[in-house]
Amino acid sequence: MRIELKKFGEILISRPAGREAYLAMSAYLTKDLSEDETIEIDFSGVKVLTPSWADEVITPLAQRFKNVKLLNTENATVQATLKTLREYSDLKI
Fold it and tell me: What are the C-alpha distances in Å from 49 to residues 29, 42, 43, 57, 74?
């Protein structure tokens, strides 16, 4: 399953918006998937990503699914946010 984050906007910045995005994903995209399903999180088209938004979306996806892959992470804000999550939210991907 590929999740294109640009569908949630180009500027992903607030914790409430991240929570809403995760709830939408849980209800419509990942609802019936097993924990062994490969989840590809695609950052293409995302201009700004903050740790608060990402912590509400990426962290729970990484906790729920065993095989999460991150695609198109070249953007500087995406890289900085992922680094922050790995340091402070114990993100393992």
Answer: 21, 12, 9, 11, 12
pTM of the model: 0.93
Is the distance from CB of 41 to CB of 3 less than 8 angstroms? yes
Question: Is pLDDT of 66 > 90?
Answer: yes
Instruction: Please answer whether residues 52 and 20 qualify as being in contact, where contact means their C-beta atoms are separated by less than 8 angstroms.
Output: no
Q: Where are the domains of the chain?
A: 2-88
Chain centroid to Cα 11, Å, comes to 13
* Nearest-angstrom CA–CA distance, 52 and 66: 22
Cα(25)–Cα(5) distance, rounded to whole angstroms?
A: 10
Rg (CA), the chain: 12
